[in-house]
Amino acid sequence: MRAKLQELVNDKPIEQSPHYLLSQELEFEFLKSILTFAMAFIGGIVTLKTALGIDKPINEGLTYSLAAVVLSAVFAFHAQQELISDLRKGRTASKIKRLFRHFPGFFLLGISISYAFSYFESSLH
């Protein structure tokens, strides 16, 4: 049990295989796409709110959406920096670190989209 826990938490030396390096490049591109989509989504929300001229005041739905998408962008950018740092230091991130690199940005982006959708849907009716 303790050995499995140590395996989840401890970093390992880097693998020099082409497969591992390709997987790291793909992981970086995935995080970059989340970051790009989050930034575009921020611009889209603000533009849509302005273009529609919705008389309804900004409520917590739009505020939550903006906060979640900003956090998504921050988490994705931080994960990119950590991935680069791991490659420079010659280590492979632990399973827990890899999980926390992927999950928060993607999850918060989904939450942001759902809050924005519900805000604009309720504002147009």
TrEMBL record:
Organism placement in taxonomy: Bacteria, Pseudomonadati, Pseudomonadota, Gammaproteobacteria, Cellvibrionales
Keywords assigned: Membrane, Transmembrane, Transmembrane helix
Annotated TM spans: 30-49, 61-79, 99-120
Name assigned to this protein: Uncharacterized protein
Superkingdom classification of source: Bacteria
Organism the protein comes from: Microbulbifer variabilis
